Amino acid sequence: MTSDTPTAETPKTNVDIRLLHDLDEMHALLAVADAVWGIAPGGLVGPDFLVALTHAGGYVSGAFEGDRMIGASFGVLARHRGDWCLHSHITGVVPDRQNTRLGRRLKQHQYEWARQHGLTAITWTFDPLVRRNAWFNLHVLGAVGTEYHENFYGPLRDDINGDDDSDRLLARWDIESSRSREALTAPLPVVEPEPGDHLVPTPADIVATRRTDDAAARRWRRSLRTDLQSLLDDHDVVGLTADGAYVVRNRTDNS
Questions:
Q1: Which residues share a beta bridge with 168?
Q2: CB atoms < 10 A from the CB of 120, how many?
Q3: How many angstroms separate the CA atoms of 102 and 9, rounded?
Q4: Is residue 30 packed enough to be buried (19+ CB in 10 Å), middle (13-18) or exposed (0-12)?
Q5: Rounded Cα gap, residues 238 and 254, in angstroms
Q6: What contacts 193, CB < 8 A, 6 or more positions away?
Q7: Architecture of domain 2-189
Q8: Cβ atoms within 10 Å, residue 49
Q9: Shortest CA distance to 38 belongs to which of 124, 135, 162?
């Protein structure tokens, strides 16, 4: 789960990102989650779990502007394709500090933590209907989409997801891949399809569509699920075209 807008605006330079440890910091993290997703503090996880996670060596971080936490992230150790990875469960930025590159800085903090701990990759899930998050994950960071999970979390009923099914695309961000290294300096360009690629369209703004036409949003969900789910048995999502379609490429051609 993530919430960020991949626009390139001037970053906040007076923001400190650091690992969290004590109970008060965990309560502050849950307040950030409340502001981002519109869920009550504790509706995501309990502060006791976050304390246990950081005590056990897991990843829990917060972004601070002075004493105020304005972004947060946490994840757990995981295995993916036989590799030890960090699985990032949430990364979010409070609404009044979005569009400031802070989401990218939070992910880069994760990246450095994972690299220093000898991990191969970072994984996380995102709603494949949300094009702006797809751009951020695939182009700004250099991840690829590797798995499609139908209604992964069950009903979330928060301000971003509404009561739609929680289908998710699993992103894998390889620490030492050429994509990741190239994205450190500038977002990866839109993808020009190659012979054999599959194109799967995405809606321009599914969050707005959910607010104005719930039936249309559900049609998008069913359509994308039908088109994308079976392809990811042996393909990866490598990016977006100029008009916002996923480019899905055979995994052997993308290795």
A1: 149
A2: 19
A3: 10
A4: buried
A5: 8
A6: 199, 241, 247
A7: 3-Layer(aba) Sandwich (3.40)
A8: 14
A9: 162
Other CB atoms within 10 A of residue 249 CB: 21
CB distance 168 to 37 below 8 Å: no
Q: CA–CA separation, 54 vs 76, rounded Å? A: 10
250 vs 222: CA distance, rounded Å: 23
- Give residue limits of the domains in the chain: 2-189
| Helix, strand, coil abundance in the chain, percent, nearest 5 | 35, 30, 35
Query: How do 15-19 and 59-65 pair as beta strands?
Result: antiparallel
Q: Tens digit of pLDDT per residue, the chain (255 long)?
A: 444 433 334 344 689 999 999 999 999 999 999 999 886 545 678 999 999 999 999 999 999 999 999 999 999 999 999 999 999 999 999 999 998 999 999 999 999 999 999 999 999 999 999 999 999 999 999 999 999 999 988 866 655 555 678 899 999 999 999 999 999 999 999 999 999 999 999 999 998 998 899 999 999 999 999 999 999 999 999 999 999 999 999 998 765
Bridge-based pairing of strands 2-3 and 15-19 is unpaired
> How far is Cα 202 from Cα 192, in angstroms, rounded to an integer?
16
Q: Are 129 and 220 in contact (CB under 8 A)?
A: yes
> Could you tell me which residues come within 8 angstroms of residue 141 by beta carbon, excluding any fewer than 6 positions away?
104, 107, 173, 180, 183
Tokens matching residue 42: 């504790």
Give the position of tokens 């709603």: 127
pTM of the shown model: 0.89
Nearest-angstrom CA–CA distance, 171 and 19: 23
